[in-house]
Specification:
Number of helices: 5
Largest sheet: 10 strands, mixed
Strand content: over 45%
Radius of gyration: 18 Å
Shape: globular
Structural class: mainly beta
Number of domains: 1
Number of strands: 19
Helix content: 10-25%
Order of helices and strands: HEEEEEEEEEEEEEEEEHEHEHEH
Length: 284
């Protein structure tokens, strides 16, 4: 569990020396978000880029070795203190090779967390588990992206993984706002048949008053001709509405990861309004 303050999180670290563990605390100093603490154990590494025109802080999650292999475990604890804005992203897609591996991210958010990782690409024989758990405080807010792809279709490795288990939960002051879970396992039948014509899927979520411009962009109708290559479904989050919080979710299915990302980015165009940057923009 993420500790209540930087000092207490620091005290947990001696017990968290195992490979693949990392912790970040973002706070406010001098009118800007700063990283009060950044710790990572190999093969996990945190890169801290700077983006002009914003007072938020950004962290890029990197794992050495080109991807996750059998037995790899990555655990990250984040704490975003009041008034701080933290953008977390990855250098590229998370490649998952044959065998069992997992990633877990736990966040305590009193400020604003923008979590925009590249999609997971699980290859033949992979069994991958991922959990993202975000606990929002009274004024906490978040923008979360979760995506996965077919693997390596160009090399004949399409939906050839053994299993994908993905779960995202968001709470606000201990009350459930979102529980989103996906299980794809060859024990339940061929994954290819369930994925159909699509090679990439993504889910974009925004919750909280501080990210209301993104909530509006997610729900805004985009007029486009029908396409076999892209399907987008967006809606408000009923549990957020019951708590009188702005909240929305968009689900994307696309024939390629590039099309899925384009659909997601069109709904992230209001990130500057919440003092955050689109990390994908530096690549395209």
């Amino acid at each position: 569990m993420v500790a209540a303050a930087a000092g207490s999180l620091e005290s947990v670290l001696p017990e968290r020396r195992r490979p693949g563990y990392g912790a970040i605390v973002a706070s406010v100093s001098g009118g800007r978000t700063v990283l009060a603490m950044v710790r990572a154990n190999s093969p996990l590494r945190f890169v801290r880029p700077t983006f002009p025109g914003t007072t938020s802080a950004a962290v890029c999650l990197v794992t050495f070795g080109g991807g996750l292999v059998d037995g790899d475990e990555v655990d990250v604890d984040l704490e975003v203190e009041p008034g701080a804005t933290l953008v977390v992203f990855t250098q590229a897609s998370t490649k998952v090779f044959r065998g069992a591996s997992r990633q877990a991210l736990r966040a305590k958010v009193e400020g604003t967390l923008v979590l925009l990782p590249d999609p997971v690409s699980a290859f033949a024989g992979a069994r991958y588990t991922q959990a993202v758990d975000v606990a929002l405080g009274l004024d906490g807010a978040c923008v979360l992206l979760d995506g996965f792809t077919a693997g390596r279709p160009a090399f004949g490795d399409r939906w050839a993984m053994n299993a994908l288990e993905l779960r995202t939960t968001v709470t606000h002051e201990g009350r459930a706002v979102l529980t989103d879970a996906l299980s794809l396992d060859t024990a339940d039948g061929a994954i290819t048949e369930r994925a159909g014509r699509f090679d990439a899927f993504a889910t974009l979520v925004a919750v909280g008053r501080r990210v209301s411009p993104v909530v509006s962009a997610i729900q805004r109708e985009v007029v486009a001709p029908p396409s076999r290559d892209l399907v987008v479904a967006a809606s408000p989050l009923p549990r957020a509405d019951a708590l009188e919080l702005p909240g929305a979710i968009a689900r994307v299915a696309a024939s390629s990861s590039a099309r899925a990302l384009a659909a997601v980015r069109s709904r992230l165009r209001n990130l500057p309004d919440i003092d955050a940057v689109d990390p994908f923009g530096s690549r395209y």
